[in-house]
Amino acid sequence: MFRDPLVNEVDEELRSRYPESGVAVIYERVEETREPEPGPSIEELDLPGEVARILHRRGIRRLYRFQYEAYRHILNRENTVISAGTGTGKTEAFLLPILREIYYVRKSNPRAMILYPTKALARDQLNRFTDYTVYPIIGFGIYDGDTPRRQREKIGLNPPSIIISNPDMLHIGLVYSSYIRSFVENSEFMVFDELHVYEGVLGSHIHHLVERIKRTSREKPVFIGSSATIGNPKEFAEELFGEEVVEVKGEAFRKGMVTHVLVSSGYLSRWSVVAYLCYILSRRGLKYIVFVDSQQLAELLTRILKTKYNVNIMVHRAGLPADVRRDIEVKLRNGLIDGVVATSTLELGIDIGALDATVMAMPPPSYSKYLQRAGRAGRRRKGYVFTVLGDDPIDVYYARSPERFFTQSIPPSVIEPSNEEVAKTHLVAYLLQSWRARIDSIPGEWRNIIDELVAEGIVKKTGEYIRPIPASARRLLSTQDGLRGMGPIVEIVDSISGDTLATRELPVALLELYPGAIYLYMGEPYIVESLNLVEKKALVKRPGENITVYTRPLYTVDVVNYDVLMERKSSRGIMASYAKVVLELSVNGVVVKDMYTGETRFTMDLEKPIKYQYSTRALLLKYPVYEELGIKGCAEAFHAIEHALISAARVTCGSGLTDLGGISYPSGDIVIYDSAIGGSGLSKLLYKRLEETEDVALEIMSKCDCYDGCPRCIYSPYCGNNNQVLSRRKAIYVLSKIRGGKAQAVAHPLELRGGKPLV
Hints:
The protein is of the alpha/beta class.
């Protein structure tokens, strides 16, 4: 029996519904609130009297110790990163010193900019900020793409002391808006809240955007970052800001009482168990949010809940129009729906009302994301966080030792500053803003891509300077989807109505929108009729019958070209390289699966493969070939090792299910690449943590009791050839051999690759 009555009820219902299936609650952990270490009283801070009175009205009589440390560092004009638990007052930690400076030292406005990852989150925070208004000295204004034109002009001509916005607005505004340029020129403080969001490709964008901010400012501003869940705050902030940073660390716990629950789905489909768990919560009148890590899985789960259990639920994900997402948020906040199935779009603190529960349909990509998502429940009343463990390798890894899930460390956040596609965007944007730049004065990451931009007719060299070719440069910026990614955008169009339903970014669009694929939108199925990569358009239509299946692609990936950036021999003698690679993705067929069980109904080939080439970063490995395994045995071993390393990277690097992809060759060559165009930094982290990742991969495979491979050890739902040519036992043989003795690295990765690539 478990301590919490609701947990007991859920456990009993699941066991009763699915007897002898292994479905059950397997672990309960209660997290109780406590107060961070106290600091000085408000009267000791020399704050303006008006600000002190506002704090007293809000019930704040004393700062926490970490808040006071941040207060002192920021007043001392030091770049600062603040990490502390959810709901412990990070906002006051950076806001109070800024308010004090604005009040006592009068200068032209704005004095500070506070940036949030999304417009919705910025607007949610506005009400909190306006409590600190001290008319006419301290004021706040929001300036983003949703601000009416007349209001923008009013703010631009007479700005308040603090502007609230988002990085996307600065990115475009520095080019096209004199108001934004003026805001950046004047601001002495530049705050990036929710800093953990800026990892991967988005973080690479922020790195370059900060360079443009510094080049625009009259005086370099104080950079401030804040986050509740980040594993390497100082290192990460210094990479983003390109400046030395002081770290202020508060307590890691969050405010509020929450019960964390692990649920095993046993031998059943994860989605069946998640759906029934949501049904239980709905029957009890609880309001909840379900997190998944794929847009189409969000749609699939929503469809199951609606059609099988008649649950009043909606899907919230990227690719939906902004007004649709806002409508869903209002319905959830007002209790008009039971809950939402969401991707990371609701991971941040957007006000969606008081939630009773958070349901993780699978362990999130990293423990930091788990903490962030768990923080959505229990903010105003007791909350529950249910995580459903399936039969994939990492879920089984944690099911064996549940306490290991909650005691794991937060992995470091990473970016790839040298992502050429990102660097191109920001150099072009900077040139459109400044109209020329001296080549020897710009960062090396920008200098490295000048020749490519010249060849593409986007910039031109004039002596020691480079200038934009305006029409081509503006066209490049217009094709970018803000700072969210680097791939070209594919429109998804209803072939009957002509309406654009949603958008998807390449290369992932190729894996979801090939002809014959079932694309789910707002829980309803559509059949993909065609995909035109030239026009970047996919035509879809509603089927004339009820559909109870979903699709997965059969595809191959091969390395077209590569350029080694770093190389090392591992402690076990394996040659490892970090490289820039050009990949060719080819979708060749489709697997049709049952919506409720996940079982394969049938497979079929496409009439003509659809191909797409792109550049990214990758880890290249060269494992020894063992003659006793034979050619087929080596192919099975290396393909299994590739799968196991990608799974293990979820533990060691905090990668998501689809953040990394892989290719293996019978010759011992393995390529594990960043799925994002240009690179996200994850494969570089895996390059550094290779030995640790090999150990986790070996543990996962060694502890599985299957004969020679199953979903609990080496099978992957994203395998391009439907989990063929795999051997757990042969993979264990190879990893054990190199772990026990020193492997002899006979060649560099990919030098002597041979055989058909497997993905």
